[in-house]
Input
Amino acid sequence: MTHLLRSYPRIYYLMMLMGFALIAGGGMGRAFLPLLSRDLDPSGLWVGFAMSSYHFARTFLEIPSGYISDKMGRRLPVIIGLGLGALGAILCSLATSIGVLILGRSLWGIGAALYFTNNLAFVIDLVQPGLRGRALGTLHSIEMLGSLLGQPVGAMLAEVIGFTAVFTVSSLSIGGGFLFALLSRELKQVPKPTATSTRAAFSLRRILRNRGLITISLVRMCRMILTMGLMMTVFPLFLHDDIHLTVGLIGVALSLRSIGFIFTTLLGGYLADRVGAKRTAGLGILLESTAFLMFTLVTQLPVIYLMAFIGGLGGGLFQIAVAVLMTQYVGQDQVGTGVGVYRTFQDTGSVIGPILMIFIIESATMRTAFYTGILIYGLITPLLWLLPLHRS
Output
């Protein structure tokens, strides 16, 4: 592993550090965001929209971000993205109504779209296909350490200084990443696209005819319905309302999930390179579906924590395997645009997920949402397995 890490350019580690700062800042509000949204809107009508607003904004910016980076280079979108993320966190810290919270999260989402599209594009640009699983796995696992640290820190701070004040701390974390990017010599030295690749980037029609890319993007969309709708929205409410946990204990559960997720994101990159991305994804589906089922059957806190960890293991395996599959269908002349399409589907799932799952639990029960998650995995498994291994 040490030899592999030394083979990556310095810009790879810079993107890793900035991603860590951005995700750490975002993770601080994860344990209590559904509770804060419900406090600001007691009717509950806008809770799903508050959860979705971050990704709703991203939905409209991913493809333009890819266009911009293919035409002008990766540096400017990265800097602007981190700056907007910090500004969005500041707005969230000032939220006294659900509308301000939604606005802040929307601005935060715009910044994330600009940053993370280019983060993934950098890996495709710089790393050869046979090592991309390991490169993506290492990058995402280090970034997700930010989520692991951010969730319990944010949950504990929320109990001391209040929900909205936590976002001030988030803005400092993201603002540090912004200053680092602005002053980075490595980012300034990244070459801009050639005239040939710039012209190719705007052939969106050719990308949309890429069946492999569209199929894997649909799979990713369904995955994000489960991540943002079930695990990031329903799961904290389930732990609070049905299991009667405090915000601090909810943060522990989410942190255990993140530990499992980080571990298998790193391991999954190696597995995807060695045994294949499809098999890695299949194992992830099995593990997380098992966790969903167990949440409907048990109430004991140790078992809930164990299932949160196992679900995180499955989620990490699945996510990195899908990302590796996506890189097989993106042409070198349209990296930014192709990644933008993939991430647009991802963000669409993130918008749909909280609204859909809130509707399900208000129409039925919390446990119905977990059954729905198992059903979604059952529907996307054949799509994933029948996906051709070669580029379309």
Confidence is low (pLDDT under 50) at residues 195-202. The first helix runs from residue 2 to 6. The two ends are 32 Å apart (CA to CA). The chain is about 85% helix and 0% strand.
